[in-house]
């Protein structure tokens, strides 16, 4: 017997706590439906409904003896509800052909049977990428292999820093933890963590549809800058806090006149969150490469490793016009 864990954050109000519990129930229902799609439900009993049916909705009245599978973590103005659902593992283990983990002497494969070394063609604007299937944030499908996948919202992927290998565990949303556990692999080392890249594309900085990190800061400062602005040098970036900001988060930007352009924001009150993150926009002028990045706030001093790694992968996968495409 193992357990599935679901988390949802609310502002602590009774009304939003009820809504959060509804979200938890839906997440658990979808996960259970997916886990039991290939076998009768009665072979895998769950205790989701009893936990939620008897749960007091007043957060001050939640007691372990009434809801032993539920935790409510409370902080000023915030609340995280955690539901642990007992889960009976299937009796029959997956075959080697459907394992997403390494098997000695055999290629890795997704549950759909697609080898995780398979190169999948993705077109973003006028750029073609050949991306190994393992790097996608979703499990690849045979349909993705047999066609040119046109992405209007650019390319997204997840990888390990510093080794740049793919993160094989697929979760929704991605990056639930900075060190996702991968079955049949040892736990991540202390110096390893996962980074998520979204909206990667090659684009000119003066493209009307694109807003660079430098322009984003100018727009932001136009609304919140004042005589009390504070700027400091941290981690090779410029940490700033503008006078009129209604929050006290940690914000960073590139030192003016340097490349790449960077604009990052980190979670306010990170001690109240299970996985506080930093996220924001990056632009490499020399490559005309833009993307959005997200990673653990505890790894902020290593921001440069994250964005250099994302750039290296993008250049590795890019199909340069006039050159032969790499073989599958």
Report what the structure shows:
With 328 residues, this protein is of the alpha+beta class. The chain has 2 domains: 86 residues, no CATH class; 201 residues, no CATH class. 18% of the residues lie in helices and 28% in strands. The strands form 3 sheets. The chain has an 8-stranded antiparallel β-sheet with strand order 7-8-14-13-12-11-10-9. Strands 6-4-5-15 form a 4-stranded mixed β-sheet. It is globular and about 60 Å long. The protein starts with a strand and ends in a 9-residue tail after the last strand. The N terminus is likely disordered.
Helix and strand topology:
Blueprint: E1 2-10, H1 14-35, H2 48-53, E2 70-75, E3 78-87, E4 119-124, E5 127-132, H3 142-145, E6 149-150, E7 155-161, E8 193-202, H4 213-224, E9 230-234, E10 237-241, E11 251-253, E12 261-266, E13 277-284, E14 289-296, H5 303-317, E15 318-319
Parallel strand pairs: 4-6
Antiparallel strand pairs: 1-3, 2-3, 4-5, 5-15, 7-8, 8-14, 9-10, 10-11, 11-12, 12-13, 13-14
């Amino acid at each position: 017997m193992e357990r599935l864990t679901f988390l949802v954050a609310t502002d602590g109000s009774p009304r939003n706590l009820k809504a959060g519990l509804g979200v938890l129930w839906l997440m658990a229902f979808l996960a259970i439906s997916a886990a039991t799609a290939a076998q009768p439900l009665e072979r895998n009993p769950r205790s989701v409904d009893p936990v939620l049916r008897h749960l007091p909705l007043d957060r001050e009245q939640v007691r372990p003896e009434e809801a032993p599978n539920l935790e409510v973590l409370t902080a000023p103005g915030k609340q995280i509800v955690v539901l642990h659902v007992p889960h009976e593992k299937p009796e029959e283990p997956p075959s080697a052909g459907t394992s997403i983990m390494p098997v000695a002497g055999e290629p890795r494969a997704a549950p759909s049977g697609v080898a995780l070394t398979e190169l999948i063609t993705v077109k973003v604007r006028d750029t073609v990428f050949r991306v190994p299937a393992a790097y996608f944030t979703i499990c690849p499908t045979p349909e993705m292999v047999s066609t040119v996948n046109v992405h209007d919202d650019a390319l997204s992927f997840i990888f390990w820093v510093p080794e740049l290998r793919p993160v094989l565990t697929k979760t929704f949303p991605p990056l639930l933890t900075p060190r996702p556990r991968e079955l049949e692999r040892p736990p991540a080392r202390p110096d390893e963590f996962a980074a998520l890249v979204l909206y990667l594309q090659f684009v000119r900085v003066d493209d009307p549809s694109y807003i660079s990190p430098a322009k984003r800061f100018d727009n932001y400062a136009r609304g919140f800058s004042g005589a009390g602005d504070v700027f400091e040098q941290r981690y090779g970036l410029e940490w700033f806090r503008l006078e009129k900001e209604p929050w006290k988060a940690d914000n960073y930007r590139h030192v003016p006149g340097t490349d790449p352009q960077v604009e990052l924001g980190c979670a306010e009150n990170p001690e109240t969150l299970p996985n506080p993150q930093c996220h924001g926009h990056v632009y490499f002028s020399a490559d005309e490469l833009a993307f959005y990045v997200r990673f653990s706030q505890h790894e902020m001093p290593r921001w440069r490793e994250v964005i250099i790694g994302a750039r290296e992968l993008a250049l590795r996968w890019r199909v340069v016009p006039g050159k032969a495409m790499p073989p599958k």
